[in-house]
Amino acid sequence: MPSLVPITTSSRTVIPLNGSGPDVSAFGFGQYQNIGSNYGIYGGGYNQQQTIGSNHRGINEKQRIIMALKSGIPSEVDWALMSLARNSIHPYLSFEEDAFIAHELIKYLCKPFQLIHDKKFDSVNQSMMTHSLDALLTLRNSVQDLSNQQWLSQVASFKKQLIEILRILSNWFFQPGKQIKELVNIEDQFAEALHYLIDLLEPLTCYYINNSKNDVLFNILMQVLYVTEDKDLFINALKCLSHLLITWHKNSKVSDDDDDDDGDMDKNTQALEQDDDDTKVTNNCVDAITDQQLEHIVNTLLVGDNDLNNAVLDFLKMYLFSEALHQEYPNSVKDSQRLRLRHLLQLSTTKANYETLVKQLPLLLVSNLPLAEPTEPQPVPNTILTRRTQYSIAPLAAPELTKDLYRIMLQFPEPARATTWLHCCYEPTTSEEVEVTQISIWKSYETQFQEIWKVDGRDRNPNLHPLLPAVDFIKNVTKAFPNAEAKVLTVQTEGEEQPRKKFIIQGIQPRQFPVSIETGNYEALKSFSETSQQEGVATLPIGHFDSRGFENFVASESELILSAENQVSLSHLNSINETSREILEYIFQEIVEKEHDHDHVASNLFRLHNSYWLPDLIYANPSLVESGIINSKWLQYLL
Predict the structure, then answer these.
(1) Separation in Å, CA 165 to CA 197, 217, 219, 341, 412
(2) Where are the domains of the chain?
(3) How many CB atoms lie within 10 A of CB 639?
(4) DSSP 436-476
(5) Does the structure show a pLDDT above 50 at 621?
(6) Quick one: which H or E segment has residue 636?
(7) pLDDT of residue 385
(8) What are 448-457's pLDDT values in tens digits?
(9) Between the chain's N and C termini, which has fewer beta carbons within 10 Å?
(10) Which candidate, 192, 205, 183, places its Cα nearest to that of 135?
(11) Which portions of the sequence form the region Disordered (predicted)?
């Protein structure tokens, strides 16, 4: 078989694979093609030329990354870590199957921080920190998968390495004088690493249980929480602390779903095991939290932010309902929990936390619920007295204006003055028995404003408009009262041969007392049906009013409040509502309802912060009590 590559001592010759070009030798591509055709390499139904390596995809990207990491070549390592960080957006690594990659990620994460720990500051460079950040970001994204969390939590030295990195970063940002001048140029990478590290710790801390008071990770996280002003860092650090409060005991109570047949035997076995092997631990980290730290956490509830409130409430719930035993009550979980409750509420000192909680928890309990606003009630209809005084019969003459009304109307032009005076001194009526003569109404008007026409011309005020003529005044009456009508009656009087004519206005009557301009204008223009309701008032008691309208209003308001549209139920509660309700219920059961001091400080503080708004809200939304969202027992402390 002839050789495919000619042996020559001359320098390497580049031969185009497509066979074109003037310098192709007899031993070039054409010779390869002839040899290939003899062996059937380029035969078949395809006439096109095939390039070497076509249709061979090679190894997959994950294997390529493994090879790059094993090579140790800087450019290959750069590509491998960058590819892992890019692909971790959609995690595809399984640390149990890809253990080599996981260990490499841990190695590159810890490398610069190990040098810092060994005080080899000059050896730390930008490239090394970039590798560390890529590895940290990949780990952070990969632990969103449960199996990867479990795998990392079982790496013996990983927790210790994370603690050391967290110590370096927290000292750098939160401890004055801990900055190293040789590393100032990578401070931005440190800030990024701190956020990624806390994010990585959040799921992993679920597996670090039964932590003692001296737990290094717990205390560093608490220091970060106490001094940071970064919202995301505060929330994630608080979530980590909540996880570190988790306790577990192998002799803990079995679930209610377990069979009861072997219950006695199980209890005896547990008792024996506990007596023989276990000692009661009263050194849990939950009792290492100070008053100042608790107050700092509780005060965050005053910030109107759902993410912050949710994280704080979850932490408080873990703190209050932790089953860790306190050293003062080594035999009772309940007593240990009650002691922590009093410690949280600061009942023996300032009571600052108690005030904050009883103020904010009710607000958070009803936040974001579909409730009717108590500040939007329908206006109560005006109470109109059917009979105001003992004078039920219409007076014979119009009343005299008050000084204020007279001073105002005196400046009016005509016919506005006449119309306003009629409205204030006369009222509409449906009675046909009441008659007002045209001459009497004109004389009353003329007498009321005699200051205008009776004064001599020299003393008359030029700014006062003259009175409306009598004919125009009478015509204006029917305009002022749309239901009034001017009539001419023929009256036959005994002793007179000829009947005489009587000019009257029907549909109005004098008032007992003058009313305001607004009231007069309204009553003069109201409908005939409203006016007719006033009939028959002579038999009614003084001060009587029509209560039917008010009763209808109350009934409609009650029906609206109790309508299905305003109903809320437990299904409407979100995590903030539920946790607030649970903590508030616990405070009432253990503190408020068991209050024995004569000052009733606890209940009075609850009343102080909630009596001005909570009863109104419950009145507008009674389903809050009906559904059990708000305990009806709480209402007695609001009165």
Answers:
(1) 8, 11, 14, 34, 89
(2) 61-207, 285-373+568-637, 403-452+466-526
(3) 7
(4) EEHHHHHHHHHHHTHHHHSS-TTTS-TTSPPPPPHHHHHHH
(5) yes
(6) none
(7) 57
(8) 988 877 766 5
(9) N
(10) 192
(11) 254-277
